[in-house]
Amino acid sequence: MYMNCHLRIAIGVLALGIALPAAAQSPGDRPLPAQAPAPKAKPAGKLQPLPEPPPPPPGMDPDPSLEPQVTIRKRDKEVVEEFRIRGRLYMIKVTPAHGVPYYLLDESGRGDFSRRDTYDTGTRPPMWVIHQF
Predict the structure, then answer these.
(1) Would you put residue 7 in left (φ > 0), alpha (ψ -120 to 50) or beta?
(2) What residues are paired with 18 via a beta bridge?
(3) How far is the CA of 115 from the CAs of 10, 42, 93, 104, 105, in angstroms?
């Protein structure tokens, strides 16, 4: 029984020793698949106009109330941009006369604004409003 176990292990190692080199072929050893010929380039003199995009399907018209409304106020050399959706203020961008622009964001929807020096803060978890009372 002890000898039978060692014999099985030896056969398994031998089988792996034969199978691994066969599986580890380099990409240069394999035949390449047939590729489609490259499209011919058009002469660079005339540009063809793009066709008109098709109309949206019925019932898929964009809702204008979902478009952000932007109010821009200029005071001396400072610019304040207020962003609203459906009348609710959710972001303010302040561009001072001297310095770097910064953002005030209302992340919770309660009117509590927090300052962000850049709008892109990296990865954040999705925060959707599922239900409001």
Answers:
(1) alpha
(2) none
(3) 67, 52, 10, 5, 6
112: CATH: 2.20.130.30
Q: What is the CA radius of gyration of the chain?
A: 32
- Tens-place pLDDT, residues 85-119: 888 898 999 999 888 888 888 888 888 888 877 66
Residue 41 counted as domain residue: no
Q: What integer best gives the mean pLDDT of the chain?
A: 77
Q: How many domains does the chain have?
A: 1
Can you read off the two tokens belonging to residue 16?
């792996």
- Domain limits for position 99: 66-116
